[in-house]
Amino acid sequence: MRATWKGSISFGLVNIPVKVYKATTQKEIKFHLLHSADGGRIRYRKVCEKCGKEVSDEEIVRGYEISKNEYVILTDEDFEKIPLKSTKSIDIRQFFDPGELGLIYYSSFYYISPDKGGEKAYYLLKRAMEETNSMGIGKMTMRGKENLVALRPYDGGIVLAQLHYIDEVRSPLELPGWGAKADITEEELELAKKLILAMKKPLKLEEFRDEYKEALMQLIEAKLSGREIVVSEGVEEVKSLIDALKASLEAVK
Question: Disulfide check for 115: which of 15, 17, 140, 173 has CB 3.0–4.6 Å away?
Fold first, then answer.
């Protein structure tokens, strides 16, 4: 793995040199876009609207528009001059109970490993968080943005979760039907609880596969070999909620 970010973790007067690595990777099947008429590749190019020329990434700078067609140009060197502690350090502001952080605030995940000389302080932080059942929250600047981040022990090390700021999370109260209640019978509730308990077991993520990707590969292979693609029948319709619950419970048994 290549490190995404290099700096340090700081809390109080403790400073731990670390490297940060992306924790997840996308495994989806990728397609090229083609012109249906002749099969030619469709490509996206960065073109200057003034001169009409295609430009490379090295020729592109970032500009903040102050008025119509007037910009303040910022270079990579300018961004390095921003006087924030979070540009070089994961600055932990406080520790808290993990149960206080709602699932909706989590964004992406990164692994943190100690850099040379930081092993002892890294291990100390991990053990102390484990034994106090604590997470740390703070700031970290990466890719031109100051991110809200949380740190917690995970699988022998420390994982960093990039968080959404509170004003980035939409209120569910904007949604029609959110929080709606309905009349249900005791029998329906008891059947639903029995079904949930019958389906409840220890979680093993390795049992879950990307079945859509597998079906997509079968479709591609079928088209390559000229085979007919067979569409399976739909799910049998159940007339009522209580019938569905009873049938589901019987199937699980």
Answer: 17
